Amino acid sequence: MGTMIRTRFAVHPTPVGDALLLHSDQGLLALDLLHEPFGAALERWARRLQAASEPDDEGFEPVIRWLDGYFTGERTPFADTLDWQLVHGFTRAALQAVADIPYGETASYGEVALHAGSPRASRAVGTACATTPFSLVVPVHRVVRADGSMGEYGGHPEVKRFLLDLEAETVAGE
After folding, report:
1. Could you say which DSSP state residue 6 is in?
2. Which of 27, 47, 54, 138 would suit a FRET pair with 167, their CA atoms being 20 to 30 Å apart?
3. Rounded Cα distance, 40 and 13, in Å
């Protein structure tokens, strides 16, 4: 059995719903936009981590500051450390490639696959985006279909549209 991950959590409101923030001793472990009751999300994470998280608002200031800034159109790079221990193999390579997509721009699943070193793995990029623990911080909302259409964004295309529109308006206003 693996080492238990000690985590702390906080919940922070955003314009697209509450965000569950999980932090380990190594950094931000997850930023999960909640589309289910808070208790169900916390239970899902406890199963994935094989440990319960403790409520604790300390240590989340950089993430909360970044989140609030993002939703007011600030283009500040995310500066907190990400804890990648739950992300492995090609999923990690794909998400790291997604992290390179500039603010206000999009890339196709195929372009991300190419950038991640596996040009034929566009479906695997979709899976990586759908299962990312780092919503917003790793901007999977910027990944679109080859024809330029948005895609589902975990069954919440309205959230993806909101995020893409927010970024487009910010860029247009500069």
Report:
1. P
2. 27
3. 17
Mean pLDDT over 138-148 rounds to 95
* C-alpha separations of 13 from 28, 34, 69 in Å: 17, 10, 13
Which residue(s) pair with 23 in the sheet?
8, 28
CA distance 120 to 114: 7
Q: Give bridge partners of residue 70 from the DSSP assignment.
A: none
Contact 143, 109 (CB under 8 A): yes
Look at the chain and count its residues. Answer: 174
Whole-angstrom distance, CA of residue 53 vs CA of residue 8? 5
With contact defined as beta carbons under 8 Å apart, do 29 and 83 qualify?
Answer: yes
Report pLDDT digits (tens) over 33-42: 999 998 899 8
Mean pLDDT of 75-90: 92
For 2-39, b/e burial (b = at least 16 CB within 10 A) is eeebebbbbbeebebeebbbbbbeeebbbbbbbeeeee
155 vs 165: which has the higher pLDDT: 165
